[in-house]
Amino acid sequence: NLSEKLDKAFHILKGHGKITEVNVADTLKEVRRALLDADVNFKIAKDFTTKVKEKAIGQDVLTTLQPGQLLVKLVKDELTELMGGDVAGVNLSGNPSVILMSGLQGSGKTTFSGKLANFLKTKKNKKPLLVACDIYRPAAINQLHVVGDQIGVEVYSEPENKNPVEIAQNAIKHAKANGFNVVIVDTAGRLAVDQEMMDEIARVHKAIQPQETLFVVDSMTGQDAVNTAKAFNDILNFDGVILTKLDGDTRGGAAISIKSVVNKPIKFVGTGEKMEAIDIFYPDRMAERILGMGDVVSLVERAQEQFDEEEARKLQKKIAKNEFGFDDFLTQIQQVKKMGNMKDLVGMIPGASKAMKDVEIEDDAFKHIEAIIHSMTPGERSKPAIIDVKRKARIAKGSGTKVEQVNQLMKQFDQMSKMMKMMQGPGGKNLMKMMGG
Ligand code: GDP
Ligand code: MG
């Protein structure tokens, strides 16, 4: 995956201190390839890597210990920003609020109309009305009724009427008269952009003046999605993008391209055919997906499950008060051991890989460490500073280890405490979050 490649590409960098033009080139080539693999438009990928390069050059890597990770983070942050920064919601200020769906046939408009209605009904306590304005395909009206039945939301349709503008206007009257506070208008699409479709959606848009016009796009369509988005945006100046079918093996590069071209927020994603398969769009998660960092994310999630939140909070306090001792160290080790593969975990924690780089990571990697700590007195555990040469010899004897091993542990402990203290600063938020703090 990309983060491994970046780590490798940055191997040569270790000891060089700063990121320079030369050692960043290979890495950014990998980044560009990952973006292109994810269907990001070539020019956008190129502009993007140029921007990251400018930010990366001159950055101090001594403080971050893992240059590869620094660059991954830079790339991820930059991608996140590119895709929209904060999470955007839908405008529900109207009475009723009118939401118009636009997009090509098969993009998922009808399905998403149902999902959104269900979301607003169950999560936002709204009373939505679905409106069938796809009058061309005989089955379309029926499809929306099936969806409506499934989620218990009323569907407004006029099977005999061939004028979508009228249907939409009548639906809004119906909504006002019957206490619906959200009106979701599902429209007809074509397989490709054509003038007739554009004229029709423009007429509906003008007649009903929606609070929110959403452009629905199939994330599997890759590069084509950009042109389609541009065509619809030129006509509708839409408010947001819905990215559907993200449950497939698409990596979602369309998200970046669309955002760059039309500069509108992606608001929701569709992740399946079921009505519940709707998610708010989180730019940072999408950035991870595009970079193929899903494994890292799941590791973090696993870590979150395992770390006892209460424990983590206590620990944070101790670190802040300089009271972190060997008993806490032991607790940490036990927590970490519960999580499984040590190498993955250590690699994930920014800075930890170096602090623990002399430790042989095996299944029983901590056996000696635990033995040594168990041979310390409670006083020594809470105030490691009192451990002098004489005490070290006693501890080594008691734990069946050598004095050098005790020394090594003392050194590692020292580094770890320093690192943890550092983590409490602005850069350490992630670790603390990971620990459930
Ligand atoms: P419309 O023509 O734009 O109204 O598209 P539809 O809502 O009819 O969807 C077209 C097809 O895509 C249907 O078979 C849907 O079940 C499917 N679909 C829609 N959204 C998703 C999604 O998020 N994931 C998956 N896997 N399928 C979807
Ligand atoms: Mg449809």
TrEMBL record:
Matching Pfam families: SRP54 (PF00448), SRP54_N (PF02881), SRP_SPB (PF02978)
Broad EC category: hydrolase
Annotated binding of GTP, by residue: 103-110, 186-190, 244-247
Superkingdom per UniProt: Bacteria
EC number: 3.6.5.4
PANTHER family: SIGNAL RECOGNITION PARTICLE 54K PROTEIN SRP54 (PTHR11564), SIGNAL RECOGNITION PARTICLE SUBUNIT SRP54 (PTHR11564:SF5)
The protein's assembly and partners: Part of the signal recognition particle protein translocation system, which is composed of SRP and FtsY.
Protein name according to UniProt: Signal recognition particle protein
Gene designation: ffh
